[in-house]
Amino acid sequence: MLALAFVQTALSSAPVRALDPSELLADPVLEERARELSQGLRCLVCRNESIDDSNAELARDLRRIVRERLVSGDSDAEVLDYVVGRYGEFVLLKPPATGVNLMLYFAGPAMLGLGLLVAVFYIRARRERGTGPDERLSAEEQARLKQIMGD
């Protein structure tokens, strides 16, 4: 009984592909190319899911477009150029690090570096001004502390 539950859990947790059998191409080489391209294209409805994994109608249309372009003789680059030209670079799950995308790639680390730099200068300035807390207690404070502690 436990083995059956384990097998059922393993099968239900396996990745499920949204690809309808009617969408498959007869040529296995073209189908493999279509699957590779589909894995790199984002479903515009589901956001961070490839069109190969999505059940959305738009993803189905994109899979159909990719397969139609491949059957018509387009190269992988031509198919991607067509889809990007139609939907923009956002459709790529891994957009190239060029142009405006370079700003996006470097903005996070640059802001982190700037924040660290500001923190370092702020801490140095506080130390130089001596505005940090005084760690020594005055004689009056020490006497009061002894009184509170019951010594």
The rounded Rg comes to 30 Å
Q: From the 3D coordinates, which CATH architecture of the largest domain would you assign?
A: Orthogonal Bundle
Uncertain parts: none
Q: What structural class do helix, strand and pairing data support?
A: mainly alpha
Q: What's the CATH C level of the largest domain?
A: Mainly Alpha
Query: Would you list the SSEs in sequence order as H and E?
Result: HHHHHH
Strand content: under 5%
Q: According to CATH, what is the topology of the largest domain? A: Helicase, Ruva Protein, domain 3
- Please estimate the helix content: 55-70%
State the shape.
elongated
Average pLDDT = 83
Q: Give the number of domains.
A: 2
Largest sheet: none
Number of strands: 0
Q: State the separation between the terminal residues, measured CA to CA.
A: 69 Å
Q: What is the count of helical runs? A: 6
Q: CATH homologous superfamily of the largest domain? A: Cytochrome C biogenesis protein
Descriptive overview:
This protein is mainly alpha-helical. The chain is built from six helices and no strands. The longest helix is centred in the C-terminal third of the chain and has 30 residues, at 100-129. It is elongated, with a radius of gyration of 30 Å. It starts with a helix and ends with a helix. The model has no long low-confidence stretch (mean pLDDT 83).
Q: Which helices and strands occur, and which strands form pairs?
A:
Elements: H1 2-12, H2 28-39, H3 57-71, H4 76-87, H5 100-129, H6 139-149
Helix pairs in contact: 2-3, 3-4
